């Protein structure tokens, strides 16, 4: 407590300090971003790009944020994503090595049947 209102007593007062004998450093918060959302034709699911693992990858989730799933863990950054009109496929582009040359792939919404549509596999 400080001095009473109008008091001229400005003497130092003891300040209680927290016990820091068992203090420890906290790890930095996990920070990631998600972008380029694309809704399936029914409007119930989203495909999007997210860098949770440090590189932009293809993910899906229900529009309420549930059922989050990684669809492609390839180390090449995913650039953009779009659903097929019938909702049976998700097409997406990657930039191998982060370069300007891209390739187009597609995958089923459950992560199966991934295949290359255009562009080359890195190193070929």
SSE order and pairing:
Elements: E1 34-39, E2 45-50, E3 57-62, E4 69-72, E5 78-83, E6 90-94, E7 103-107, E8 115-118
Antiparallel strand pairs: 1-2, 2-3, 3-4, 5-6, 6-7, 7-8
Question: What do you see in this structure?
Answer:
By secondary structure, the protein is an all-beta fold. It has a domain at 34-118. The chain contains no helices and eight strands. The protein has a four-stranded antiparallel β-sheet with strand order 1-2-3-4, with no helix packed on it. The model has no long low-confidence stretch (mean pLDDT 85).
Brief write-up:
The protein has 124 residues and is mainly β. It contains no helices and eight strands. This is S9 family peptidase.
Top keywords for this entry?
124 residues, mainly beta, 4-stranded antiparallel sheet
* Sheet with the most strands, sense and barrel status: 4 strands, antiparallel
Q: Name the beta content range.
A: 25-35%
Number of helices: 0
What is the distance, rounded to the nearest whole angstrom, between the alpha carbons of the first and last residues? 74 Å
Strand order of the largest sheet: 1-2-3-4
Shape designation: elongated
**Strand runs, count:** 8
Order of helices and strands: EEEEEEEE
Q: Given the helix and strand composition, which structural class is it?
A: mainly beta
Question: Overall pLDDT, averaged?
Answer: 85
Low-confidence stretches: none
Helix content class: under 10%
In angstroms, what is the radius of gyration?
Answer: 26 Å
